[in-house]
Write a structure and sequence with these properties.
transferase; single chain; histidine kinase; Heat Shock Protein 90; five-stranded antiparallel sheet; alpha+beta; EC 2.7.13.3; 40% helix; elongated; 9 helices; 2 domains; 10 strands
């Protein structure tokens, strides 16, 4: 009998020690643990991390409980129909902090079955996704920057070969064959960048040579329509544009998205913005994005396409200084140029120039361009 009491005492002490360790773990865990009753749909347990991270306690977490248990009715119904897959659930959503701001989270929960075989309790954890998403964003940013740094010299080679092809009609076949080998090697390296370095939208900005695949007038209309959700006064004017141009549509859409975003952020709400598309005087196609704001300081114009550069008018305006840099990088990949100038009456004009595809599979450089397709100042 004495041995039995000693064994029970030892088991009780072990249980109490384990409970203390478990509570200590919950108190210092970064995850928010919770438990709720399926019948009343009320929280019966909420770990201390909820107060540290979201400002809620068990007594003040009514609104939090509603978001945590938002999918519970559907899951209980699925369980009643014999669907065992709804027992465990993992979803991403946003939860409101006690002060009102939203926090991206991952909610993982499991239904616990009672003695009668029906779900009685749901237990789960909440994970704050801010750090994870910030890390992912930094990784994507690094991949994009690395991709751009490789693209710059490749674009220089690409532009030089295109110009040699354009001006070298008198070259013999052996020389022209070498041009094609260089072009093939450049295309292969650009394809590797797309496959291994470009994250998300940048992954679609490939340089694969392909037939014309987008209507330039429609490209401008689509960009304007999207931007009108933020600025109603956006007009589109086109003249003499071809039915199709050869480009990477996702890349060019991103260019106009960033140029329009820039124009909207740096002008008043009542300032109109114009999109213009036409044949360029020197050959090729030009797209203009014009606003009628205060313009850019003349001393800063040469730097607007630099990585992370933000002008003196950027105080109080959200941004990273990468939009125009990315625009130039994308246009470079297409063998074109992008420039900025202040117009005489008022405002700023950004000009994208793209070479004309005179032959299938060709994307020719400008006659007055240097090897990287920029204007030759000499």
């Amino acid at each position: 009998m004495g041995q039995t009491i000693a064994e029970l005492q030892a088991a009780l002490e072990t249980s109490q020690a384990n409970e203390a360790r478990y509570r200590l773990l919950l108190e210092h865990s970064g995850e928010i643990s919770w438990m709720a009753d399926c019948a009343t749909r009320r929280l019966t347990w909420l770990s201390p991390a909820a107060e540290r991270q979201f400002g809620y306690t068990l007594d003040t977490a009514h609104s939090l409980a509603q978001r945590l248990l938002a999918d519970l009715p559907a899951r209980l119904a699925s369980q009643a129909d014999g669907d065992a897959s709804s027992r465990h659930a993992l979803r991403e959503t946003e939860l409101a902090h006690a002060d009102g701001h939203l926090v991206p989270v991952e909610i993982e929960s499991t239904l616990i079955v009672g003695a009668d075989g029906a779900p009685a309790t749901v237990v789960g954890v909440v994970r704050d996704l801010r750090a994870r998403r910030e890390l992912a964003a930094q990784q994507k940013k690094f991949a994009s920057m690395l991709s751009h740094e490789f693209r710059t010299p490749l674009s220089t080679i690409d532009g030089a070969v295109q110009r040699l092809e354009m001006t070298g009609a008198h070259h013999d076949e052996a020389t022209r064959k070498r041009y094609r080998k260089i072009q093939t090697a450049v295309d292969r390296m650009l394809a590797m960048l797309d496959e291994y370095l470009s994250p998300e939208r940048m992954a679609s900005l490939g340089r694969e040579r392909q037939p014309n695949e987008i209507n330039p007038a429609q490209l401008l209309e689509t960009a304007a329509e999207q931007a009108r959700q933020r600025r109603k006064q956006i007009s589109v004017h086109t003249q003499g544009l071809p039915q199709g141009i050869r480009c990477e549509p996702a890349g060019m859409r991103l260019c106009f998205e960033m140029l329009l975003d820039n124009a909207i952020k740096y002008t008043q709400d009542n300032i109109p913005i114009e999109l213009v598309g036409k044949i360029a005087a020197e050959g090729g196609i030009e797209f203009l994005v014009r606003d009628h704001g205060d313009g850019i300081a003349e001393t800063e114009l040469p730097r607007v396409f630099e990585k992370s550069f933000r002008g003196s008018n950027a105080v109080g305006v959200a941004g990273s200084g990468l939009g125009l840099y990315m625009t130039r990088s994308i246009v470079d990949v297409h063998g074109g140029t992008v420039t900025a100038r202040n117009v005489s009456e008022s405002g700023t004009e950004f000009r994208i120039w793209l070479p004309v595809a005179t032959d299938a599979g060709k994307n020719l450089a400008r006659l007055d361009a240097s090897s990287d397709n920029s204007l030759d100042a000499s």
